[in-house]
Amino acid sequence: MTTSPPPFTDLVADLSNPQVKVRRAAVKQLLGKLQDPHYLPSLLPFLTDQSGSIRSQAVEAIGRLKDPQHLSLLRPHLNDSHWAARRAVVEAMGELKDPQHIELLSSLLTDPDWGIRHHAVEAIGKLQNPAHTTLLSPLLADSDKRVQQKATEVIRALKAK
Fold this sequence. Notes:
- The protein is built from 10 helices and no strands.
- The chain is elongated, with a radius of gyration of 18 Å.
- The model has no long low-confidence stretch (mean pLDDT 86).
- It folds into 2 domains: 1-82, Leucine-rich Repeat Variant (Alpha Horseshoe); 97-161, Leucine-rich Repeat Variant (Alpha Horseshoe).
- The termini are far apart.
- It is mostly helical.
- Helix 2 packs parallel to helix 4, helix 6 runs parallel beside helix 8 (114-126) and helix 8 packs parallel to helix 10 (145-159).
- One of its GO terms (molecular function) is oxidoreductase activity.
């Protein structure tokens, strides 16, 4: 027997529940529904939630709106203590495919977290500029094999352009 999702009012009540597990479930369900930019004000409080996973979900939801004007809301989360929030910002920047982000994205190629470097390589690849291969070449010798593989893949694709 499947259960139907809780009514919207129950979700809203759960958003202020002191238990992180309850809030996280409510945020996840609610954010999945909020792909309309009119709901952006509802997401803003979650950018500063004490739970890193909730902040991450809020960053992801705002990133899915693919609005360049929202990047100013996301950019501070490049310094978030939760890796998933940081990753979500990098992914949002990649989805925007804005060449003006190259300086910020290239600065992330030396991030201590391999996942951030990996997603920065991927985001730079989405800009589809063959000149960016010089930025990515040092990552062919990255300490993490996954970053090396992504750099190799993106460099090949950019050279094929």
